[in-house]
Amino acid sequence: MMSVRKRLFTFGTILLFSLTLFAQTSLAEVSIIPEGNNIVADIVEKASPAVVYIDTVAYTTYTNPMAPFFDDPFFRYFFDLQPFQREQKVPQKGLGSGFIFRSEGYILTNEHVVHGAEKIKVTLKDAREFEGKVVGSDLLMDIAIVKIDGNDLPILPLGDSDKARVGEWVIAIGDPYGLSYTVTVGVLSAKGRPINVGDSGKEYENFLQTDAAINPGNSGGPLLSIKGEVIGINTALLPFARGVGFAIPINMAKSLLDPLIEMGRVVRSWLGVYTQNLTPDMVQQFGIPGTKGALVADVIDNGPAAKAGVNRGDVITKVDETEIPDMKILQTTIRSKKPGEMVNLELWRSGQKKSITVVLEELKNETTTPNLVPRQEELGMEVQQITPGLVRQFALHETGGVVIVSIVPGGPADQSLLKPGDVILEFNRRKMNTINDWFHAVTSLKNGQSVLLLVDRGGETSFVPVQVPEKK
């Protein structure tokens, strides 16, 4: 009979032998990786010459605090104010990235990188410096094209962002915090992300998400695939978030390049409606088959849809031959058309199918948020019908009614300290049971009117006054 000590010794010997064999096997497997196979370094070496550093200077007007006394003879005499200027132009410096996509010196970057810039300096990797000029920009898509004088410049090939797969490797090159030609590597974390960017509270759609580090100064730089092709334009990061950056899909920019170079802007069509997505409760209320379509929340006076007879409460299900499952597809479809083009809308009204022909017009004000009822936009917040998803997202105590999903910084709702996740129970003592109650309430507001909201936040209710701004 083997003693306990011998059994333990035998077990230990076998375990040590197994671990040694495993380690040798693992080392053997690692050693089969070819030496010098560094595909990322190869891509960066080839791509970097086409990546540029963009340095901008914009001027803001500064009013001297002594200006009110300039016209007073007493102060002018005793304090000798003549040398002081009432207003001064103060330079504001900015930085960003970009990349050359045409050898004649055309550079693609973000609109916010060069917005309002009076001076633009472009620096290449070989230290050559050029004076840049914005030849076209699009605020809605946040892209701009800068031109420098040059020929046979290095370029980056534009890839196909639609074919990019979540999980594949991506490479970002840019100048974060002025650290020139910084390279970060990660994966494509997600596609089709809608995010709010900047102080405007504006929502951008269909962004690429990556965990490759993107920091201030990276904006406008390329997001490269493992083939060395541009699949995105690095453009945004979430404050205080780690491993979350965003890029504009390059396919969204491709169709805009020629119009921006030739005309300096992008011409888009406009339908003239404010829409929202359907919920199961709305489907029953509006008497339509299925859950697909874009619900018309409001129709803009004298707009294309209003002229054609589209009404609030109509559900648009088709534009020409294109099925419309939600409001985003409706927007994309309308923007793909040309101003003056006739389109056929298939819609449901009061439980009946109708067909209406609309002549599209040109979208003049690209800063307009197309998914908010006008008065809702003026209140500085977006409100939606509560759904199970929103209950989970905001940990709501209420499961029926309407909830604030976004706040415009600096707007009336923000000034009243309202927050996303606040449930609106009453509007001027009127109960808000559905999103239609809300729409009817906000469209009846008058300029300068004070609104009293009953709000539930975390199970506690309070009355909150919100001031409707006066129109100038």
Mean pLDDT: 80
- CATH-defined fold name of the largest domain: Thrombin, subunit H
The tally of strands reads 27
Number of domains: 3
- State the major sheet: 7 strands, antiparallel
- Supply the number of helical segments: 13
In one word, what is the shape?
globular
Rg over C-alpha atoms, rounded to the nearest angstrom: 29 Å
Uncertain segments are: 21-35, 197-202, 366-375
CATH architecture of the largest domain: Beta Barrel
What order do the strands of the largest sheet run in, or round the barrel if closed?
Answer: 5-4-1-2-3-7-6
Write down the CATH class of the largest domain: Mainly Beta
DSSP strand (E) fraction?
Answer: 35-45%
Q: Could you say which structural class the secondary elements and strand pairing correspond to?
A: alpha+beta
N- and C-termini, Cα separation: 101 Å
Level of helix content? 10-25%
What does this structure look like?
The protein is α+β, with helices and mostly antiparallel strands and 472 residues long. It folds into three domains: 228 residues, Thrombin, subunit H (Beta Barrel), CATH 2.40.10; 94 residues, PDZ domain (Pdz3 Domain); 94 residues, PDZ domain (Pdz3 Domain), CATH 2.30.42. 22% of the residues lie in helices and 36% in strands. The protein has 13 helices and 27 strands. Strands 5-4-1-2-3-7-6 form a seven-stranded antiparallel β-sheet. Strand 2 and strand 3 form a beta hairpin. The longest helix has 27 residues. The protein starts with a helix and ends in a 5-residue tail after the last strand. About 7% of the residues have low confidence.
